[in-house]
């Protein structure tokens, strides 16, 4: 009793711990949206021993991955999120968490520059979000896919996905998300040389967006003006008004280009050097080298221009190879996705065909069952009608009408149909071997002979019961042969039914039975002898 009580207390304690950790994770999930830094700190302080069970561990891994992202910490190690992926891929009870898991899994793959895998994860997250009518994460998934295509220099695809993201955000009435996605779309269009479309979007943002987005829109608008060389002074005016804190390396480069176009080469030199100061990598410096070469060329410093172009070309060559590798990876990813989709279609078609053929087979079997059932019903009905007809004959004549007992017996139990009617012509209408086999199989059908005994007792005044009682030599073993004698079955057929070697053996037994009946001096001697001698007029040809 004490052990049971201890076990119950341990079980209650375990359940209490599980409830406590789930409540704590509930609070932290809400806190992530408001204060991700604080939520991340609280998550990291949860002891590992409290994370019992796969569901708790998976939820903890997901929430911590969410907290990292919302705290602007770009992680590239997928070991943590894989705990959630492995669990929520199999579990169907929490579809919202499965969608979030694949979204943040895609972000981590994106941070690790594993772009093909990231696109697959984010596409799956988008499908799940669409199925759950979660427009916010639908838009975020599309937006991150667009960013991947932007980083892969596929501006047309990036623009298409940003349009999908904008549509989802608009349906969800997320104004801020809509405006930032519009800005990204404008950048895509600008890099795809669709300047008029990009300029139109930027002009709208300049008049409606918040201050930060407004300033960035103005800088992009100025870049288009420099690219087209149709409003260079307006671009210079924008650059003068925008605080330098908003500049990136490219803004410095395009400001220097604006001064080159209007002939202000000293100012161009100054601003390009400011750009070099904040450039973070060789790729950014290579872009500025190309712009510096333009300044050198305009200043007749052709030797320096050649050096800057050569330096930029070397970096650009490695970047091109990297972009080609990324493009190849994405092309492979598209091929595998298409092949997987085709495989799913083929599998679906195969399942459909299997279902159709299975259904057809079931229908055929059902119809076959109905056919044979109706056939048996008709045969039973015909047999009942024949018996009813015999009943009428019996009532009209006042005597037993047993002439058809043998025929009914053979038709009902041997299922030979026309056995008696073709009895005299067996050799010409059916194979003799098959005929004998059907007859010999009848002998082992005990229920058939029980029915024969019942029919003979009914029509012939309990003749089977009486002979078994009045003739001592009659046993259970030879009762079948006697019943066939009384039913008027020809000796030639009895030979095969009882598996005797010749008709002579049947006649010998008939003669011996006749002698036993006479010696027994039984009350129904005349009845027994009358039916013992019954033989049909038609003789066999076997």
Number of beta strands: 0
**pLDDT below 50 for ≥5 consecutive residues: which ranges?**
5-17, 395-401, 414-429, 537-542
Largest sheet: none
Helicity range of the residues? over 70%
Strand content: under 5%
Span between N and C termini? 86 Å
Q: If you average the pLDDT, what whole number results?
A: 80
Radius of gyration: 50 Å
- What string gives the helices and strands in order? HHHHHHHHHHHHHHHHHHHHHHHHH
Number of helices: 25
Give the assembly state of these chains: single chain
- Principal-axis shape: rod-shaped
Structural class: mainly alpha
How would you characterize the overall build of this protein?
The protein is an all-alpha fold. Among the domains are: 247-329, no CATH class; 341-399; 402-532, no CATH class. It has 25 helices and no strands. The chain is rod-shaped, with a radius of gyration of 50 Å.
Write a short abstract of this structure.
Helix content is 79%, strand content 0%.
Descriptive key words:
single chain; 542 residues; disordered C terminus; mainly alpha; 25 helices
Give the SSE map.
Blueprint: H1 2-34, H2 36-44, H3 54-70, H4 79-90, H5 95-111, H6 115-131, H7 135-151, H8 155-171, H9 175-191, H10 195-208, H11 211-228, H12 232-241, H13 249-261, H14 265-278, H15 282-298, H16 302-397, H17 405-414, H18 426-429, H19 432-442, H20 446-459, H21 463-470, H22 479-486, H23 491-497, H24 503-520, H25 525-532
